[in-house]
């Protein structure tokens, strides 16, 4: 039987590639559209790669038609909060402009189903540090969050007037790596806590710091809700199936665990799992970092059936550490991926219906 094709923009990136694997395991054919600006060709293992930019409306339209695509998962974006402060135009251009072009390509192709990558950054600071529900006021404090909020608003407006069925998934802190060790987190410019701490342990960076120990939190460091990337990926499939099944109702869901961990708690777990001590001097706060961001995830649980299976801190750190140990974070992933064994901490091979992945097929 022919598998339903799903267009995955940004499928060569960290979260997009895990979503491609989850789609393949669920019986879909993920078709990646990616310009490889921050992604890795070697991560495109479960379906074809269409090398291109989401701003290219004709490329989007033709890809949707050629593959008879049933829905789009839209991950392609620029997503470094600090960079959005120094280069706001890039964020409006790539994230908002790119989404407008994608929507136009979808309209021309008659493809109506959209799963959109949003972020907890649309909320800004949590009022009183309470868990954030989907109804928490959206007051982004950085350009990245503002551009994502604008995308959400455009998508909702178009959906109210034209044929578009969207679901917006607001992730909290994506982390961890594929438990089978096939893919993981690799960016040329890395800003995230867990990969940077591991790069510091491995000696690849020498400027690791804890950004602020004077927050109003129990140990003074900032608290985040860490959600395993494979749980996020699975939630995308659940959201997609809800869309394809024609469900109406809520358009936005938080994807987090509801539990918060401080930077120091995360670093402690990294030391325990890796067996390495980690010099982590306290530095200044990073501009725009709120003290505490934790999800109220109950709508996703109730309406999507979202049930994180890998998002306890130990599993997050174990899978990430296994990936980092085997795929040198400063090496070329294409050349080292073949050497990455199944995760030796959580050895749990999966049978994928995509046995014999199509590697780096370009159209
Ligand atoms: N990483 C997180 O913690 C997090 C949290 C919340 C939301 N998000 C969102 O999730 C999505 C994926 O993030 P990620 O961490 O996997 O980032 P990533 O940089 O690893 O992946 C982004 C992918 O999009 C591609 N891309 C970027 N611009 C493109 C364009 N114009 N045309 C085609 N391809 C393009 C890149 O090459 C890359 O493969 C983003 O939309 C991001 O805003 C991420
Ligand atoms: O070298 C580092 C890196 C990070 N941190 C701290 O660790 C925590 C987590 O930082 P990350 O950079 O890993 O994640 P953020 O919470 O800043 O960012 C996440 O939330 C953002 C919204 O606020 C965006 O959605 C972004 O894509 C997503 O990764 C923060 O308190 C940060 O200050 C450090 O102390 N040292």
TrEMBL record:
The record, for Gene3D superfamilies, names: NAD(P)-binding Rossmann-like Domain, UDP-galactose 4-epimerase, domain 1
The NAD-dependent epimerase/dehydratase domain covers: 6-256
Q: Name one GO biological process term.
A: galactose catabolic process via UDP-galactose, Leloir pathway
Q: MF terms per GO, please?
A: UDP-glucose 4-epimerase activity
Name the needed cofactors. NAD(+)
Q: Which NCBIfam families does the protein's record reference?
A: galE
Similarity comment: family membership: Belongs to the NAD(P)-dependent epimerase/dehydratase family.
Record's protein name: UDP-glucose 4-epimerase
Species assigned in the record: Brevundimonas lenta
């Amino acid at each position: 039987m022919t598998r339903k094709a799903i267009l995955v923009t940004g499928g060569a990136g960290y979260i997009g590639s895990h979503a491609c694997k989850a789609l393949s395991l669920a019986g879909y054919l993920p078709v990646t559209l990616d310009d490889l600006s921050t992604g890795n060709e070697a991560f495109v293992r479960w379906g074809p790669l269409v090398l291109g930019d989401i701003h290219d409306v004709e490329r989007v339209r033709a890809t949707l038609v050629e593959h008879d695509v049933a829905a789009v998962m839209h991950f392609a974006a620029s997503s470094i909060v600090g960079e959005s402060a120094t280069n706001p135009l890039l964020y409006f251009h790539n994230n908002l402009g790119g989404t407008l072009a994608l929507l136009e390509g979808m309209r021309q192709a008659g493809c109506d189903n959209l799963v959109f990558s949003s972020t907890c950054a649309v909320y800004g600071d949590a009022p009183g540090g309470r868990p954030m529900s989907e109804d928490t006021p959206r007051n982004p404090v950085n350009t990245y969050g503002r551009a994502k909020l604008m995308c959400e608003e455009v998508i909702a407006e178009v959906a109210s007037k034209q044929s578009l069925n969207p679901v917006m998934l607001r992730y909290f802190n994506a982390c961890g790596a594929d438990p089978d060790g096939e893919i993981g987190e690799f960016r040329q410019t890395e800003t995230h806590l867990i990969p940077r701490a591991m790069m510091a342990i491995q000696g690849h960076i020498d400027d690791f710091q804890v950004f602020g120990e004077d927050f109003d939190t129990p140990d003074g460091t900032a608290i985040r809700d860490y959600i395993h990337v494979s749980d996020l990926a699975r939630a995308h499939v659940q959201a997609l199936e809800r869309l394809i099944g024609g469900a109406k109702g809520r358009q936005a869901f938080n994807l987090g665990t509801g539990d918060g961990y401080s930077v120091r708690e995360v670093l402690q777990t990294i030391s325990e799992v890796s067996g390495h001590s980690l010099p982590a001097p306290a530095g200044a706060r990073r501009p725009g970092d709120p003290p505490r961001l934790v999800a109220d995830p109950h709508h996703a649980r109730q309406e999507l059936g979202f049930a994180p299976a890998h998002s306890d801190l130990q599993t997050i750190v174990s899978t990430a550490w296994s990936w980092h140990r085997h795929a040198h974070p400063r090496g070329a992933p294409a050349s080292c991926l073949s050497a990455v064994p199944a995760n030796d901490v959580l050895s749990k091979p999966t049978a994928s219906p995509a046995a014999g992945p199509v590697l780096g097929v370009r159209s």
